């Protein structure tokens, strides 16, 4: 992973800017919080007392949201040391006590790194919920996904829930190219399908381009797993898929769903999906 900083440094900065856009804040996290709460309702204290692990935690914005809804403890893991640093700084700045959170660097698709970061002696059946926003699209194949799910299963309480969001694969298979967020930042995002055969797991290139010159600043490739792929990897990891649904927009966000900038939809498709799974021996 020698190129990790080359790849993630610029991504990290741009992604932080995107994450401060309320449209993002209000869909993936809103749906996830609803799904993991006991009541199934997004409300004050709906995560009261819960211990939650956020995989691919980025700059800690999701973790802050979990605390806002009453979580008692949150742990975050991310591959990028810069994301980790920023998450620690951000959570400290907003006043989350040091003993309530732990952020560590780890490759979430390597069981060795995961066990090293959160040893089973301490974290076996520890978490009420494990979340991940747009992480699994970075796994290169189903075996890597399975590896991550197997470890997550050991960390989760037996009645715990795993809930993650992922991009909608239809977007890459049916739209060769699209772009978004053009006027809001000094860069715009371009998505380009890299899939040439129906048999392949769809892959897309996500590029950040300079708004004025159009020049590509950098890009990353992501895999767009379909529901069946996730179901298979989850089963192999000891989970049962309970639901897969399009991301919902927080109705209290005050944002207009018909707004042209509504990034939740591309054409008639939902931009992303929320997956919920539980231990398959229950
Ligand atoms: C699209 S961002 C989402 C960040 C965060 N979940 C959020 O919603 O703000 C993807 C994150 O996954 C991290 N990531 C990518 N590959 C990873 C891996 N193999 N293990 C751990 N984190 C990874 C990136 O560093 C980045 O922070």
From TrEMBL:
Gene3D superfamilies: Vaccinia Virus protein VP39. Residues 48-183 form the Methyltransferase domain. It holds the Pfam family Methyltransf_31. GO terms for molecular function: methyltransferase activity. This is Methyltransferase domain-containing protein. It comes from Blepharisma stoltei. The lineage of its organism: Eukaryota, Sar, Alveolata, Ciliophora, Postciliodesmatophora.
